[in-house]
Design brief:
Layout: H1 7-22, H2 29-38, H3 44-52, E1 53-63, E2 69-79, H4 86-95, H5 98-107, H6 113-129, E3 132-134
Helix pairs in contact: 1-2, 4-6
Length: 138
Amino acid sequence: MIRDYKNLIEEILRMKSNIHKSGKFDFDYYSFYKAFLLDTSSTEGNLDALKHIEYNACYEDTQTLYGEPITKTIYGLKIKDKNVLLSELFFKSVECCDEIIDVLLKSNPELTKDEIEAFLRFITVILLDLECEDIPDD
């Protein structure tokens, strides 16, 4: 038997699809919670993680091509009740911290630094792929 870990990803993709189809966001905490636990165990650490992570909107102030200020909405995995996306947090943590690479190299001596960096970049892209943006029209 092959166990397929996909429940959480499918739940996130369902939410993304609803945003694209209807323009509305519907976060169902119970479905998110259930999907997470179907793919993992209900250890204290996993249950604690669920208290701090959600799929919801973050807001980013930016500019149009003409320099006009706008706020775009980014839906993604984020720290609960904070305007911090996991993709951005992960990217910042690996971009500025060689210690992470050193720890991974030490625990996986068969890997090269380039392979570790590729892994970290790949995880960042996976987190970004779980997001969608609502950018106001110019």
